[in-house]
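Now for our specimen.

. . .
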Amino acid sequence: MSFPTHSPYVVVGAGIHGLSTAYHLALELKAKNKGSGADILIVDKSGISAGATGIACGVVRNNYFQPAMRELMAHSVNVWESDPKAYSYHPVGYMQISSESMHEDIVSIYEQQKCIGYASTLVEGEKDCENYMKDIFYDWQAQNITSVLHEAPGGYANNTKAMNGLATKAEAEGVRIISGVEVTGFKEDASGSIIAIETNRGLIDCDYVVVGAGPWTPKIWDMLSLPKTLKIKNPETGKMSDDVNMWIYWSLQEGTLGVDPNLQQTNDCKMPPVIHVDTDAPLYSDLDGSLITDEMWGIYYKPDFHFGGIQGGAAPFIVDKNADDVAVDPYGPGSPEFIVGDDFSHMWVSALAHCQKRFSGQIPKYKNEPSGGIGAFTPDSFPVFDKFKENCFVIADSNHGYKMLGVGKLVAETICGKKSELLKPFRYSRYAEGDLHPVSNSPFPWS
C-alpha cells in the first residue's frame, strides 16, 4: 500500500477505540450515502492492538456507581453481544462481591440496573452471600462480604483476537490500516481547524481527525495545544478549584497465575463469571501468614485460555516518575507494566487464596511476564469524549477503555451529525460547569 497523502477521515490509533470508530463510521457513511470505508484511514505507530489494548484484561461489565457510566456500559455490552464470534467474546457474566462499606453503593447500582433493563441479581447479608457463592464455588471463603451483585450479561473478550476480528470487519468495509506511522504534529488553518496530520512518513491532508491513542492521548493533546491544566467547579459551593493537571498516570496491576484455566470451573463444571472482590477483611500472606494489609483492598480475576491461566488484577497506583517522561512514551524502558513483580504477585495470589481455597499454595506458579500497563487518567478518573478544533474528536477513555467497544459507534454517529445523550456527560466542559460524576466507595479509581 502506497503512503496516502490525503484521507477525508484519519483515525489515530489502532486499538479498541480507533478500530471501533473506523468500523462504525464506515457503516454510518455507507448508510447515509455520504461515503464509504475507503474514506477512512487508521494510522498507528506500531500496529493493531500494540498498546494498552493488547495487554488489557478484557473484562466487559456494567458495574458502575455512576449512572452515566452504567448507561454507556450497557450500550457497549450490546455491541459486544452483536457479534460474539468476531469479537472473541465470552458472555459468562460478572460478579461484584463487596463488604459493608460498599453495600449502599451496590444497592443503588442494582436499582438503577433494573431501571435500564440490565439483568442482575442482588444478594444481601453475610450468610446469604456466603451460601450464594458456595452454590457456585464449593471452596468460597472470602470474609466480611455483605453484598453480591451478579450481572447476567457481560464477561470478557480475548484482547488481541477481538481486535483482529474488529480490524477484519473494518477492512471488509474498505477501511485502510497503516502501521509504522507516528503522528508528530498537526497543521491548522486560520480558524484553527486541522487541515493535515504531520507524521514520520510525511503529511496527510484530512477533513476530520479522531484520536484514539490510549495512554498516548496526553502526547497528542499537547500537539493539539489543548490545556495542560484546568479548574474544576465545586457543584455544591460553586467555587472554582486551583489549577489541576489534566493528566494523572497510574500503573495498572495485572498478571496471570500459570495454572490450568479449568481449575476455576464452577460446581457444575462450567466456566465461571468474572469475579471482582472488594473487602475490608484483613489480608494475610499465603506464604507465611503475615499481614499484607488491614485496609480496604480489591481484586478481579477470571480463567483465560488466551493468557494461559487465571488472569486478573488489583487496584492500581499512581506512577511515581516524571509525568512528562511518561507522556513521551508510556510503555518505554522501565515503565511500571514491566516491573509488576513480587509485591503484586504476593498480594494478588494471597487474595485469590483468601477468596477460594483452591488457590492456596499457588504463588510459585505466578507468571512473571509483562502485564497491566500505564493508564492516562483525567482529573476525575472518568473519560473525556469531545470534539476540539472544530474537526477533531478526542477519545480519552481514562483507562475505562477495553470494555467500551460501543464508544466508537457513538462517536461515529456523532461525526455524522447525530447527537449522543450517552456521550454528553463526558464532555470536557463538565469540569468548568461542575457537572461531575458521583464518587463511589470502591478502592478502584474507575468504579
Observations:
- The chain has ten helices and 24 strands.
- Confidence is low (pLDDT under 50) at residues 333-341.
